[in-house]
Design brief:
single chain, alpha+beta
Length: about 150
């Protein structure tokens, strides 16, 4: 199953903040199991929406210099409400720092003026070739694919 948890970038201020949106559809496969009689977007995927949003901010700020952007830590994650099919969530991310290999953020998600979740988290960014120079071609393909996806989102 492939997860892409951002449908559109609403606004971005490089190095500072990004706003994105995710629309939840009943057609999303994971909703069949979470939960059959009360389908809601799983909490881990809500958090992943924050992470993906921040990753796009890092990519734009660093001009797509890293192929890998991964969660390093999550703190104070608070889930306030459920998000059901038919709803949309707007993610608001503020960068605390974006350094060469690490970054930190605070963010929250709202739906119809209701807070859904909030968190502080850190990301780690790197290239596969940093550890194995033979992976440079893989880095290049990943970065090119991310640039194409960015054109669709922005």
């Amino acid at each position: 199953m492939r997860f892409i948890l951002i449908d559109k970038v609403i606004s971005i201020e490089e190095g500072k903040q990004i706003k994105t949106v995710k629309n939840v559809s009943l057609a999303e496969e994971y909703l069949a199991d979470h939960f059959p009689t009360f389908p809601v977007l799983p909490g881990v995927l809500l958090l992943q929406g924050l992470i993906e949003s921040a990753s796009w901010l890092v990519r734009q700020t660093e001009k797509f210099s890293h192929s890998m952007i991964l969660l390093e830590q999550a703190k104070n994650v608070k889930y306030k409400s459920f998000l059901a099919p038919g709803a949309a969530i707007e993610y608001n991310i503020e960068a605390k720092t974006i350094d060469e290999n690490v970054s930190s953020f605070s963010g929250f998600g709202v739906s119809k003026d209701q807070l859904i979740l909030e968190a502080r988290f850190g990301l780690r960014h790197f290239n596969l070739a940093d550890e194995n120079s033979a992976m440079a071609a893989v880095d290049a393909v990943i970065i090119e694919n991310m640039k194409k996806r960015w054109k669709l989102l922005s």
